[in-house]
Amino acid sequence: MPHSALMFGAGAGISAPFARLLAREGCKVALAARRPDKLAALAAETGASVIAAEATKPDSVAAAFDEAERAIGPLDVVL
Q: What pLDDT is attached to residue 1?
């Protein structure tokens, strides 16, 4: 199992169940979304870090990688 994961678009779709699975398996998780306020409950439940990021903007993606690595260490998986 990977040690750390950065998840883009974490506020929609299957991201919440997947974040729970990763956290339950011991993975450190960083959740990235345009509206990080929507991730507060999931972050509290999983212990994940929350990052504001716009996946369609390269500068925002680069900043999210940097912030995630500061928060949870070197990334093993990016979703």
A: 55
User: How many Cβ atoms sit within 10 Å of the Cβ of residue 34?
Assistant: 16
What length does the chain have?
79
Is the whole model's pTM more than 0.85, yes or no? yes
What are the Cα distances from residue 51, in Å, to 1, 35, 79?
23, 9, 14
Q: With 80 as the cut, is the pLDDT of residue 41 above it?
A: yes
- Cα–Cα distance between 32 and 68 in angstroms, integer? 9
| CA neighbor of 7 nearest in space, from 51, 45, 41 | 51
Q: Kindly state the average pLDDT of the residues 2-23.
A: 89
Which pair of tokens denotes residue 44?
């509290």
Please name the helix (run of DSSP H) or strand (run of DSSP E) that holds residue 41, with its range, or none.
helix 40-46
% of the chain beyond a pLDDT of 90: 80
